[in-house]
Amino acid sequence: MAAYVFYILGTYLVLYLSRTREYYADRFAAEITGNPNALSRALIKIAYGILEEGERTEKPSKLIQGTRALGIYDAKAATTTGTAYRIASEPEKIGRVFLWDMFNPWGWWMELNSTHPLTGKRVRALSTYAEQLGLDTEFDMARVVREGKQLSKKKLYGSFVVDMVLYAAEAVGFFLGLVIGISLFMLAPYAWYLIISLPLFGFGIALAIKTLVMFPNFKNAPDLDVLTLMSDPYASPLRGRPAKLNGQIIGRANPGNKFGANLQMKDATGMIFLHYASRFGPLGNILFGWLQANDLLEKEVEVVGWFRRGIAPWLDLMKLHTDSGSRVTSHHRFWSFFVIGWGNCLGFYRHS
Q1: Which of 335, 332, 300, 291 lies closest to 315 in space, CA to CA?
Q2: Percent of the chain with pLDDT over 70
Q3: Are residues 144 and 187 in the same domain?
Q4: Which helix (H) or strand (E) holds 328?
Q5: Are 324 and 345 contained in the same domain?
Q6: CB-count exposure of residue 177 (10 Å: 0-12, 13-18, 19+)
Q7: What are the backbone angles phi and psi of residue 325, rounded to the nearest 5°?
């Protein structure tokens, strides 16, 4: 157990040193070139190049994975930043995308488990160094910081705490049900069945709450675009934001995988991944990827789903309509409701 604890501590220490190394590498490059702004642009253009290359080749992920292997940049962060910069006619427009990197607690949490700092923080460090050299900065990070300080800390951190609790909602519900069941059993020894039924009820109720938060009502999803979604500093990987997007399917999320069910879509402002879920589970995903996904490539589509933001953005797909009339329905909530129903049925059965 002690060895495992030290292993975890060592892992996070290595990740911290890796991120620190990236800051020193950025500063060293800025000192050698004498132009921190050029490196700021380069960090953005690396991602921009990957995205543009991805539109010209059948298998863009190999280029992205190659960049990860070189240790230049984290591929997921590159996708996010490149999406924003590619459509930005003015550098300051990228600022709101960096707000999530710099001020959302989820950004800090994901960076903690990453080998590279988030883009916004690297550009901020380079902008500070440019100011020290008396140079104009490429990106007005001071304005970004001022805007970030005006964000609602209660909303940012309160939502983060709630999200962390919701991630463990099933375990919390099961444990609370078990505690209540044992307590009632001690008061009434004949009610032994409560030790079994209440944990199942607790599990089902907690999973229902989590599912409703993750997948809210999508029927009135507003028409949005990728940049608008990415510019939300309060975005979360758990709380889904209903959205309707219009664009073109440009490939699979994992090119070369003939059975991959997830897709890539671009609109006028950027690129996003679409996560598909079959009601038949992994087997249904494989069949969709094998039999249907190719037919959707290069099609103009309207998609409805739940937007989430981690280091990279994605949309949990609910409905997809092509311009030729084809329809695809995804079922992210199906198995949650299936488990909720069976858990409550078993709990009721044990209770009765």
Answers
A1: 332
A2: 83
A3: no
A4: strand 327-329
A5: no
A6: buried
A7: 100, -5
User: What phi and psi values does residue 308 have, to the nearest 5 degrees?
Assistant: -135, 155
Give the model confidence (pLDDT) of 94-104 as tens digits. 777 888 888 99
Average pLDDT, the chain: 82
Domain end position, chosen among 151, 177, 193: 151
User: In this structure, are 270 and 185 located in the same domain?
Assistant: no
Nearest to 114 by CA among 77, 62, 80, 81: 77
Same domain assignment for residues 115 and 208? no
pLDDT value, residue 283: 93
Distance, CA of 186 to CA of 180 (rounded, Å): 10
Tokens 């280029």 — which residue?
63
Say if residue 11 is in the same domain as residue 146.
yes
Q: How far apart are CA 92 and CA 109, in angstroms?
A: 26
Alpha-carbon distance of 3 to 317, in angstroms, equals: 42
Strand, helix or coil at 266? Answer: strand
334 pLDDT band (50/70/90 cuts)? confident
Q: Count up the domains in the chain and report the number.
A: 3
Measured over all CA atoms, what is the biggest interatomic distance in the chain, rounded to whole angstroms? 80
* Bridge partners, 318 (sequence order): none
Q: Please state, in angstroms and rounded to a whole number, the distance separating the CA atoms of residues 173 and 233.
A: 30
Instruction: State the CATH number of the domain containing residue 326.
Output: 2.40.50.200
Which of helix, strand or coil describes residue 274?
strand
Distance between CA 314 and CA 306 in Å, rounded? 8
Looking at the fold, whether 189 and 260 belong to one and the same domain comes out as no
Answer whether residue 51 shows pLDDT above 50.
Answer: no
Find the range with the poorest average confidence among 184-188, 224-228, 233-237: 184-188
Indicate whether 74 pLDDT > 60. no
Average pLDDT over residues 291-296: 91
Q: What are the two backbone dihedrals, phi and then psi, of residue 307, each rounded to the nearest 5 degrees?
A: -80, 140
Task: Work out the average pLDDT over 54-74.
Answer: 49
Structural domain boundaries enclosing 178: 169-215+341-351
Mean pLDDT of 57-84: 51
What pLDDT is stored for residue 44 in this prediction?
67
